[in-house]
Design goal:
It is an enzyme of class 2 (transferase). It catalyses: ATP + protein L-histidine = ADP + protein N-phospho-L-histidine. GO terms for molecular function: phosphorelay sensor kinase activity. Its EC number is 2.7.13.3. By secondary structure, the protein is of the alpha/beta class. 51% of the residues lie in helices and 18% in strands. It has 24 helices and 17 strands. Strands 6, 7, 8, 9, 10, 11 and 12 form a seven-stranded mixed sheet that branches. Strands 2-1-5-4-3 form a five-stranded antiparallel sheet, with helices on both faces. Strand 13, helix 14 and strand 14 form a beta-alpha-beta unit. Helix 14 packs antiparallel against helix 21, helix 20 crosses helix 21 and helix 21 runs antiparallel to helix 22. The chain is globular and about 70 Å long. About 8% of the residues have low confidence.
């Protein structure tokens, strides 16, 4: 068959589908757009035109490529944004069109409907996040009971139990804070669904650490097998991965009998850009109770596949509704675009074949999903052409990056990995402590690189806790520490150096200077690293509404990352600044406002958004001084957001 014939055949198959979609789009009262992942509009209606939702509007209102990646993975996702002073709420649906992909965006018709959708989404998110509180709280209670019930144990065992209790408490605080953020509207659906780089291996270990006290209280032994054994870094919605792991592990421990075996395998074929992930949890609980199987079937919609054939279980309403935990598991699995098998485990440890009379000794939960590798979107080199890091790379150097701004965190990770470093990214100091308390941290982490303004505990408090735990013998890790902040004053620098931090770097910082500092700190015998020269060269009055970007920094970013990736980082930084604007507009200045502004300021500085960086800095000074932010300052930020957004899209 010739290429022309193939195209003709494909068009004939797709034409009826497009005609049906066209009829739906044209008669819908809501704004509806069918577009490609490159924002090429295939179909749209009059309401979409009225709200300005054309090809240019899609790019300005959304991080369109990232939305399409998530919709392709999950099938459909909720979307929320503010565009041209209008709150937009709706859904983006992936629509395969033969060999091509289409994405159907359907927005709410009225402000009232948008508010209803927003509240409904927030409520559903709150229910899921609140449910995830149960496991860390149970872990904390189990760890506490183990301490109080043990009368005579050696010092090492007592210390291990206290460390476990502390980790469980930290995880519980993390989850409680997420719930509070959802209630306040600070943690949106977009935040929860957002993709970022993370270590899948570390997430598995951290989740098991949380589950182990519960398993210990039930007399259940938990084992872990990783294939490969080394860390696997991927790019995707880490919060949904955590929810899936937590509910799979928790469910198996609850019904698992005396032993639960966890197997995680990651493979990447040369022909496939994705990492294929298998998470298998096997137990010795004699098999799931029939009622639990039915609820699980209903939650993950397995009524027509192997589980129904294996068990013959009924699926009618009389058999009960799925529990909150199963609904959370099903939702996470859907957002990951994954599948779940629920199988009976035989005496040989393998799945019992359908239709056989083999003895069932337990259950196997087997989840499969694909995520992009973290290195897929990393640049090939971070050094400008002709430059090296003193002739060295960061190969063999392990860096723990602590940064609450997602766009700043990804920027730092990509720069360091491109220079050869092994990087573990976390979003706050509590997660950093979890990583450092792992037994393999001594071998895997050479340097802690932390932002100084963080949620829960700031950078100074993080370093103080690390030093205190080292002094008491509770922390074996003895690596070096490097600070990073958007604004340095001499008091902060002196405090950091007094605590033993090697150096305090200031954002914005060029990627080559960042990597050089990391190299010098790791290789130096003492904390005598010279400050990075010329860090403030990008600051000052070199920005205006006619030139909102720092030209040299933007040029360097594009050379290092390519135009599309550089623009993606800039969009994300601008989105963080936009979230700050919306939060202040709706809630005024709150206790956490200064930290939020600081994070957005750093993100804008790292990506060359100078006008936004300067405008945010002025707001941060007001917030730090507990002064009200006037409408004029908010107006300046709104103008900066608009101007910067236009210039980002005009880059070429």
């Amino acid at each position: 068959m010739t290429r022309k014939t193939e195209l003709s055949t494909h068009a004939a198959k797709v034409r009826p589908v497009l005609q049906a979609i066209a009829r739906l789009v044209s008669t819908d009262r809501r704004a509806v757009i069918l577009a490609t992942d490159k924002a090429e509009v295939l179909l749209s209606n009059a309401p979409a035109t009225r709200v300005g939702m054309d090809a240019e509007g899609l790019v300005k209102a959304f991080d369109w490529p990232a939305l399409c990646v998530r919709a392709r993975r999950a099938g459909s996702i909720a979307v929320s944004t503010k565009f041209q002073n209008t709150e937009l709420e709706g859904e983006l649906v992936h629509m395969p069109l033969g060999t091509a992909d289409g994405f159907l965006l359907r927005l709410a018709e009225t402000d009232q409907e948008a508010a209803l959708l927003r509240n409904r989404t927030r409520t559903a998110t709150l229910l899921r996040v609140s449910h995830d509180l149960r496991t860390p709280i149970q872990s904390l209670l189990a760890a506490t009971d183990a301490i109080f019930q043990s009368e005579e144990v050696d010092a090492a065992t007592a210390d291990a139990r206290r460390d476990q209790m502390q980790r469980s408490a930290q995880l519980a605080l993390n989850h409680i804070d997420n719930v509070i953020k959802v209630i306040r509207g600070e943690l949106t659906t977009a935040d929860i669904q957002s993709d970022e780089d993370f270590s899948l291996t570390e997430e598995v270990r951290a989740t098991l650490d949380m589950i182990k006290p519960i398993a210990g209280a039930r007399g259940t032994a938990v084992s872990l097998h990783l294939d490969p054994a080394e860390d696997v870094h991927v790019h995707g919605p880490v919060r949904f991965v955590r929810a899936l792991l937590q509910n799979m592990f928790d469910n198996s421990v609850k019904y698992g009998g005396t032993a639960v075996d966890v197997h995680v395998a990651c493979t990447r074929e040369p022909s496939n850009a994705q990492v294929a992930i298998l998470v298998e949890v096997s137990d010795l609980g004699g098999g799931l109770p029939e009622a639990q199987k039915v609820r699980l079937m209903r939650a993950i919609d397995l009524a027509d596949i192997s589980l129904a054939r294996q068990t013959g279980a009924a699926t009618g309403p009389k058999d009960g509704r799925p529990s909150a935990g199963l609904n959370v598991l099903a939702h996470a699995l859907g957002q990951l675009g994954g599948t779940l098998e629920v199988l009976d485990r035989g005496e040989d440890g393998k799945a019992v074949a359908v239709g056989t009379d083999s003895k069932v000794i337990g259950t196997i939960l087997r989840a499969r999903f694909d995520l992009a590798p973290a290195d897929q979107i990393a640049p090939a080199t971070i050094a400008p052409k002709g430059e090296t890091i003193d002739g060295q790379t960061l190969a063999g150097v392990g860096v723990l990056v602590v940064e609450d701004s997602p766009s700043s965190r990804d920027w730092l990770v990509h720069c360091l990995r491109a220079a050869g470093a092994s990087v573990i990214p976390v979003e706050n100091g509590l997660r950093a402590l979890e990583v450092l308390q792992n037994a393999d941290a001594v071998q895997k982490v050479d340097l802690l690189l932390t932002d100084m303004t963080l949620p829960y505990i700031n950078g100074i408090e993080l370093v103080q806790r690390i030093i205190g735990m080292q002094s008491s013998g509770a922390l074996a890790w003895q690596g070096k520490m490097l600070g990073l902040t958007a604004h340095i004053d001499e008091d902060l620098r002196a405090a950091c150096l007094k605590l033993g931090m090697a150096q305090l770097l200031e954002k914005p910082i060029r990627s080559v200077d960042l990597c050089r500092s990391v190299h010098e700190v790791v290789r130096s015998a003492a904390c005598d690293v010279a400050p990075v020269p010329g860090q403030k060269s990008g600051r000052g009055s070199d920005c205006s509404s006619t030139q909102p970007l720092a030209p040299n920094m933007v040029k360097e970013l594009i050379e290092q990352l390519g135009l599309d990736t550089a623009r993606g980082f800039m969009r994300r930084a601008r989105s963080e600044a936009g979230a700050v604007f919306e939060d202040i507009l709706q809630n005024g200045v709150r206790a956490d406002t200064g930290r939020m502004i600081h994070a957005a300021t750093g993100a804008c500085g790292l990506t060359g958004l100078k006008l936004l960086e300067r405008t945010l800095r002025e707001l941060e000074l007001l917030a730090d001084a507990a002064q009200p932010i006037a409408r004029k300052q908010l107006g300046d930020l709104e103008v900066a957001l608009d101007v910067t957004g236009r210039v980002i899209e005009e880059l070429e």
